[in-house]
Write a structure and sequence with these properties.
Length: 306
């Protein structure tokens, strides 16, 4: 087992992707601190791990406040004797277009995703550095944070910010031997289940069948368990040399996202005035302007649903 003797915290792990991560970490030998805002959900998650022979305990609290981060680390140390792995998965959605999004819609998502990631990683890093633990920090991003998505201003900001923080933490924690990486999962969720494009994939999953190869291979779209292997690998000693990366995974596909790099570099003596840009920018940028959002390929005829 890759993680025998390790201790992990997984925020937002009562169900869905977070639960799948926690179960895989436990399967690989780690003791796991489950976190959810609902006690019954958290208890059920703990039970699934214990029934499979693993060790788990729960902390019922919303992620965001420093007090929650402190309680998570304290529980890991007092219950299992230490902390080696942190997976920050907790999140909420408040999807609305820019002109309809309230301050509360924006603040709620930023508080849970961005501030919650920050407070939990800070607390874990303090413990790891103080105790000489070459720990593993794994933060969950999203394709929305990489490319944008209609109606998700708050979520895009939070997820892009998480990747930015991970790159910074990789630099700051390197000397301590602590790695920090982001995982960009693509998996079936309650949200995707309502999108007609994914209907055939959802139908197959509900029947207990594998998704059609088009979804798993061409789209890199699968189920929660498809993401768990990357989480366990990055949490292991085998990934000691990997840090500051954004790794995408879904279905049968694995991707290593690039850091933002300039696609055009040009110079103008004396600097770039508005007039110079008016004359030269169209030619410089032709065919090089970057796309936004994700574009899906056409569905094969046999996977279309009316």
């Amino acid at each position: 087992m890759l993680l025998e003797g390790k201790v992990a915290i997984v925020t937002g792990s009562g169900r869905g992707l977070g639960l799948a991560y926690a179960q895989e970490l436990a399967r690989q030998g780690a003791a796991v601190v489950i976190n959810d805002v609902d006690a019954a959900t958290a208890d059920a998650a703990v039970a699934t791990i214990e029934q499979s022979g693993g060790r788990a305990v729960s902390v019922v609290a919303p992620v965001g406040p420093t007090e929650t981060a402190q309680e998570l680390v304290r529980t890991a140390v007092e219950t299992f004797g230490g902390l080696d792995i942190l997976v920050t998965n907790a999140g909420v959605l408040r999807d609305k277009t820019l002109w309809n999004m309230s301050d509360d819609d924006f603040d709620t998502v930023i508080d849970v995703h961005l501030r919650g990631t920050f407070t939990c990683v800070r607390e874990a890093a303090v413990h790891m550095r103080t105790n000489g633990v070459a720990g593993r920090i794994i933060c969950i991003g999203s394709p929305t944070g990489q490319r944008g998505n209609f109606g998700q201003t708050n979520y895009a900001a939070a997820k892009a910010g998480i990747v930015g923080m991970v790159r910074t933490w990789a630099l700051e924690l390197k000397k301590a031997g602590i790695t920090a990486n982001a995982v960009i999962p693509v998996a079936a969720t309650a949200m995707t289940s309502t999108i007609p494009y994914f209907a055939a994939a959802v139908e197959a999953t509900e029947r207990g069948e594998a998704m059609p190869p088009f979804f798993r291979h061409d789209l890199g779209f699968g189920v929660s368990e498809d993401v768990s292997g990357v989480i366990a690998y990055l949490a292991s000693d085998a990934a000691a040399g990997i840090s500051g990366q954004a790794i995408g995974v879904g279905g049968d596909r694995l991707q290593l996202w690039s850091h933002p790099e300039p696609v055009v570099t040009a110079y103008h003596d004396g600097g770039w005035s508005a007039e110079a840009l008016q004359d030269e920018f169209p030619g410089l940028s032709e065919g090089r302007l970057q796309s936004v959002g994700e574009t899906f390929p056409p569905l094969p005829e046999d996977l279309k649903r009316s």
